[in-house]
């Protein structure tokens, strides 16, 4: 599984974790069924789940005239993945994490999701 696919699957699993109160490994096993677990996918799901409170605090600090509770679940989950990558995974270039997040927003969010995600994430690199 390539990293883009792992990010897509992580988005779907983490989105489900936001709705249901499952454990990350349980949610991953259920989602993947018979597929082989991917190391990068596991790192993303477990890492975002583990640091969710800290990541949400970081996102909240960068929001202007907005609260994290108002962010749609898809965008919030994408932001969490990107912030996890930016803060906890040193081997991924910043621009790759941001571009991947914007692409996920454009694919899974609404018409303005990519722009919103770009606006929030740009505050983490400036």
TrEMBL record:
Entries under Pfam families matching the protein: NusB
Source taxon at top rank: Bacteria
SUPFAM superfamilies: NusB-like
Keyword Transcription among UniProt keywords: yes
One GO CC term, this protein: cytosol
Domain NusB/RsmB/TIM44: 4-125
GO biological process: DNA-templated transcription termination; transcription antitermination
HAMAP family: NusB (MF_00073)
Protein name listed in UniProt: Transcription antitermination protein NusB
Organism: Virgibacillus massiliensis
